[in-house]
Design brief:
Length: 235
């Protein structure tokens, strides 16, 4: 449900979003919620290196994706940023144009002894976003809001590719998954005011409508992975 909010960055059109938030306050938990129940991936091996691991995920506005993974057990940090483009265009103003190649992304650092990449991908496809929306997510449109997994090695790529194939073959979603698999060249952290945005602005209508339902669904669908106290970038 788009309510006329298109092609712009999350922070714009606040007057319109605020009006929508007031109008639909009672229905907010139902809007923008991803609720798919997915089986775990069959290919989910333990990494050879048992140290901290990272994966970069893109699924629309990074506020909600970051907010979800900050509540996942085993995640030590989730940082909003940009991936897929050049360093000189890794700014919010440039990325919002949709012409930089960047996607709003989140770099997730996790302990594989506590949570596997497969479990993180299960959360990603289940509650963090809708993987069937092409170059869009909820009210936001443009390639900067595409669904993508930026893999750092062949092992990550295979786990992600195999899981997408499993989900498509199981016809979990009404439409095919459009998540792209892209090699990670570089991740650029976003500006400081974007970090922990969901935590600092829980009453902002965009967050209430589009992102807080994701946290609720994480808690409901994955109680064993849900952590009440989020891991903040600010500490």
């Amino acid at each position: 449900m788009m309510f006329g909010i298109t092609r712009h960055a999350c922070t714009r059109n606040f007057a319109l979003v605020s009006a929508v938030g007031l109008l639909f306050a009672g229905a907010a938990p139902l809007l923008g919620a991803e609720t798919a129940t997915l089986a775990p991936p069959m290919n989910d091996p333990a990494p050879v290196d048992e140290g901290m691991q990272t994966v970069v995920l893109a699924g629309g506005c990074f506020w909600g994706v970051q907010g979800v993974f900050q509540h996942v057990v085993g995640v030590s940090e989730a940082v909003s940023g940009y991936a897929g483009g050049a360093q000189n265009t890794a700014t919010y103003g440039s990325v919002s144009s949709g012409r930089t190649g960047h996607a709003e992304s989140v770099k997730v650092t996790y302990d594989p002894k506590l949570v596997s990449l497969g479990k993180l991908l299960r959360v990603f496809f289940s509650v963090a976003h809708d993987p069937t929306q092409l170059n869009a997510q909820g009210p936001d449109q443009g390639t900067q809001y595409r669904s993508a997994i930026f893999f750092s090695d062949k092992a990550q790529e295979k786990i992600a590719r195999d899981y997408i194939a499993e989900l498509d073959q199981a016809h979990i979603f009404a439409r095919p998954i459009v998540t792209t698999l892209e090699p990670l060249a570089k991740f650029y952290p976003a500006e400081s005011y974007h970090q922990d945005y969901l935590i600092h602005h829980p009453h902002q209508p965009y967050i209430v409508i589009n992102d807080l339902p994701k946290i609720d669904n994480l808690k409901r669908l994955f109680p064993d992975l849900y952590r009440a106290e989020p891991k903040l970038v600010s500490g």
